[in-house]
Amino acid sequence: MIYKIIQPSLHLQDFVKDYLLLHYAFDKNEPTPIKPFPANTQHCLVFYLRGSVNAFDPKTGLSRLYPQTSINGSQISRFDFHLSPHYLMFSVNFQPSALSKFLRLPLTEFIDERIDAEAILNPEIHKLHDQLVNAKSYDSIVAMVEQYLWNRIQKLKSDFHPIEKVAKIISENPNSFSAEKMASFACLSISQFERKFMQQMGITPKFYARINRFYQAYQIKDKNPKADWLSIALETGYHDYQHLVKDFKQFSDTSPHSLLEAQANSPERILGIA
After folding, report:
1. pLDDT digits over 188-228, tens only?
2. Is 150 left (phi over 0), alpha (psi -120 to 50) or beta?
3. Which of 123, 139, 158 is the last residue of a domain?
4. Are residues 169 and 190 in the same domain?
5. Residue where a domain terminates, one of 158, 177, 202
6. How far apart, in whole angstroms, are the C-alpha atoms of residue 34 and residue 269?
7. Residue 194 sits in which domain range?
8. Rounded to an integer, what distance in angstroms lies between the CA atom of residue 121 and that of residue 92?
9. pTM for this model (two decimals)
10. How confident is the model over 122-132, as pLDDT tens digits?
11. Are 134 and 200 found together in one domain?
């Protein structure tokens, strides 16, 4: 069993933030714990190599089975993942705005979606999935994915988009977001900045900052259980605790305490591998 965040090779770091490898096995006669997934702005290419994900939307009451190889845009809602007892996945987590360049597509249609990668990345991605399923080791999974990524990246136009830099600044410091300041960094008018940001990130810069602020508060508490919520709220730029609760309700469909409680019962936490 393994839950591991892996750094990409140096030549891929402009595109790839990191990789996530998760592999576990539960007793198939027992129900697998549910994995809560609150809103987040991470864009990914995910390979499901053993088992599957059936995602339940608490707001609509609907479920859907994700494709074997999925492209994930910005997630603005909570989903509960019902996973197979034997589960192996490998996720390529892109740098802010890099997925749009990698796909050569705007991301406005990718919000809350898991798009079948084969519909966009041609049959080559299906061949790669088959190779990963039959890989002899975790290291070989990483090596094969990196070779695929590098082969595609080398064919891309290597131009610089200021939105890349701005999106990273917002994701790291969401509580200091200012549309005027970010547009100035990008050397664009506010309307140009917002339009280009939407194309490359799928959502408006203000909404992007809100989700990242919420997720930052959630992560601080997750890593520091003894920290009190009011201090976390003020640290991450909320006016008060109730302001934070409002965002938790929108982006996780529950209270701060309940989200942390649900996360504590996710598969990797129960197994003690995360």
Report:
1. 999 999 999 999 999 999 999 999 999 999 999 999 999 99
2. alpha
3. 158
4. yes
5. 158
6. 11
7. 162-264
8. 14
9. 0.94
10. 889 999 999 99
11. no
